[in-house]
Write a structure and sequence with these properties.
Layout (H helix, E strand, L loop, with lengths): L2 E5 L3 H12 L3 E5 L8 H7 L3 E3 L2 H7 L2 E4 L18 E4 L5 H4 L3 H4 L5 H8 L4 E4 L23 E6 L2 H14 L2 E4 L25 H10 L7
Parallel strand pairs: 1-2, 1-4, 2-3, 4-5, 5-6, 7-8
Antiparallel strand pairs: 6-7
């Protein structure tokens, strides 16, 4: 049985835990306040889930999900995540995160900075443009004419392959927008982002990624 370590138990992390368990995964989930604060969520998720501290969730994981905003001062479980694929669900929001000069200037994406925080892991940008409450509602079986797609960006082909399989299991096609330096094309405010409520087909997503224009923030 594959175990997913989820660090971050807010709306995104909790919904991804539900989706993963529905597809037969085991989940170890952590937040910043300690496992005792996750009792209600674990009771809802059932026997395939348990709560832990972040380092323990990372150590137990076959692959991991970071479901909380990027912070330069983050102390992440680097050793426990070494060699593992790590899905980064973060979107850079100035109103929430403050300004980061490297991101604002266009020198780097937030996911490149996350890769620097976890240099021995394989970061993949994933699940960043479908609202968490819509994850089940928009899912469709493979081959359905109205199947939506989600984007992945990574510097590691094996991470792209893992996310592609995971998306398919959850009911979505994949568009590969690698490497991480191209992840700005799927950030808030870009053409594809305007479809984050209702989703978009694979071809629509490809077209919208191509239409994106990069501008430095003031």
């Amino acid at each position: 049985m594959t175990t997913i370590g989820i660090i971050g138990a807010g709306e995104v992390g909790s919904q991804l835990a539900r989706a993963a368990i529905a597809e037969g995964y085991d989940v170890v989930i952590a937040n910043s306040r300690g496992p005792e604060t996750l009792r209600a969520l674990i009771a809802e998720l059932g026997p395939s889930a348990r709560a832990a501290y972040a380092a323990d969730a990372a150590a137990a994981a076959d692959f991991a999900i970071l479901a909380y905003p990027y912070k330069p001062s983050d102390t992440l479980p680097v050793e426990e995540l070494a060699g593992k694929v790590v899905l980064d669900t973060n979107n850079y929001m100035v109103w929430r995160d403050g300004h980061h000069p490297d991101i604002d200037s266009g020198r780097k994406t937030e996911h490149e900075l996350r890769q620097e925080q976890l240099p021995t892991s394989k970061i993949a940008k994933a699940f960043t443009h479908v609202q968490a409450p819509s994850l089940f509602r928009l899912a469709r079986p493979a081959g359905a004419p109205d199947r939506r797609a989600m984007v992945v960006s990574s510097d590691h082909p094996e991470a792209v392959a893992l996310v592609t399989r995971f998306y398919d299991q959850l009911g979505y096609d994949t568009v590969d927008n690698s490497p991480l330096s191209e992840a700005w094309r799927s950030t808030p405010g870009t053409p594809m982002w305007r479809h984050h409520v209702h989703g978009q087909s694979r071809q629509q997503l490809i077209d919208n990624l191509r239409r994106a224009q990069r501008t430095a923030r003031p």
